[in-house]
Amino acid sequence: QVQLAESGGGLVQAGGSLRLSCAASGRTSRSDAMGWFRQAPGKNREFVAAISSAGSVTKYLDSVKGRFAITRDNAEHTVYLQLTSLKPEDTATYYCAAGPDTSSIRAQSTIYFWGQGTQVTVSS
Asked: What confidence tens digit (pLDDT) does each residue in 17-63 have?
């Protein structure tokens, strides 16, 4: 069974940066799109970013455009989320996910696998 394992979360001051990683183990297809979601206490899970299988198409939550960047290294079966200019409002548990395409991931209409999450805390 495919597993997704997130890492890279932590505590950072406002304006700081983190890089989250999501490594896939087991059988996974290079044709899968990948994405990131986040969930803060008392909030619903929120789409953050997605990237197509070849990395040519990306989608972002409006509030993170220009601050976050999603990339992938298919040879290493890993997707990254570079977080910069972090704000306290970005504090959440971040989850990676795999799906058929970026639109499906953004809409949460079809998700193949979820990671277990990594905590990001941004202090003011």
From this structure: 999 999 988 776 667 899 999 999 999 999 999 999 999 999 999 99
Closest CA to 40 of 51, 48, 30: 48
Distances (CA, A) of 63 to 44, 110, 114: 16, 23, 23
Burial class (CB in 10 A: 0-12, 13-18, 19+), 117: middle
Query: What type of residue is 91?
Result: T
